[in-house]
Amino acid sequence: MTTPNNAKQLDTVLTQTAATAAKEKSPAPSSEAGTVNNDQPGAARRSMNKMVQAQQHAALHEELRKLIGHLHAQTMLISGEGLENFCNHNDQIKSDYLWAMTDTAGRALKLLDDAC
């Protein structure tokens, strides 16, 4: 059961998320690509390439984990007992909140597509 304090906290989070979404509506973050000096001998260059690829993979994994974790938190706020509270907000807040969820999922998909 949602207590008055929990409902107030949920209201605050929903409103802040919707407000942030309305302000941001930003493109997906760019991935940082490492560079390799091609003047190095073959074995050293291959080793550097592997290190750069491992760093890029780790950065991609971390960014995807962050985005998916954020999306999970957003959905948890409006599921179960939170749904009734979400439905009580005005249409603009609900629209901005759902847009933020869609944007988060879209950024995760774009990041994954760009990596493949």
Explain what the structure shows:
With 116 residues, the protein is mainly alpha-helical. It has a domain at 62-116. It is built from four helices and no strands. It is rod-shaped, with a radius of gyration of 20 Å. The model has no long low-confidence stretch (mean pLDDT 78).
Secondary-structure topology with pairs:
Elements: H1 4-24, H2 42-77, H3 81-87, H4 91-115
Helix pairs in contact: 1-4, 2-4
What gross morphology would you assign?
A: rod-shaped
Quick check: average pLDDT?
78
Q: How far do the termini sit from each other?
A: 44 Å
Percentage of β-strand residues: under 5%
Uncertain regions: pLDDT < 50 for 5+ in a row? none
Quickly count the helices: 4
Q: How would you characterize the largest beta sheet?
A: none
Percent of residues in helical segments? over 70%
The SSE order reads: HHHH
Given helix and strand content, the structural type is: mainly alpha
**Total count of strands:** 0
> What is the oligomeric state here?
single chain
Please tell me how large the radius of gyration is: 20 Å
In short:
This protein is mainly alpha-helical and 116 residues long. The protein contains four helices and no strands.
Notable characteristics:
116 residues, mainly alpha, 4 helices, rod-shaped
